[in-house]
Write a structure and sequence with these properties.
Elements: E1 2-3, E2 34-39, E3 46-51, H1 52-55, E4 59-60, E5 76-79
Parallel strand pairs: 1-4
Antiparallel strand pairs: 2-3, 2-5
Length: about 90
């Protein structure tokens, strides 16, 4: 949930601070993304859904970001897929 705040073209801007464990885990361009997070192993698996737009405000691209959960090697994440219709109708109201 970052907003790019420059009009400079043909220049690289790094929005992740350099560091051993710094990285991007998930990316989407959806306005209202729903993130599914699975933690644990075997019978201890827990599922959680995060409405990202309700949890994290849009920040400037230099912001540190937001932590949704503690990192663990047993975490799996995916975006919830929206149903695609053959003939989408735009909403009027």
């Amino acid at each position: 949930r970052f907003k790019i705040e420059t009009t400079t073209l043909k220049s690289k801007f790094f929005f992740i601070k350099e560091g051993k464990d710094n990285r991007v885990e998930m990316v989407t361009t959806e306005a209202e993304p729903l993130l599914i997070v699975k933690t644990g192993k075997g019978q201890l698996v827990r599922n959680a859904k995060f409405k990202v737009n309700n949890l994290v405000e849009v920040m400037g691209w230099k912001a540190a970001g937001a932590k949704l959960t503690e990192y663990s090697k047993t975490i799996e994440m995916e975006w919830e897929k929206k149903e695609v219709t053959d003939n989408p109708q735009p909403e009027l109201f």
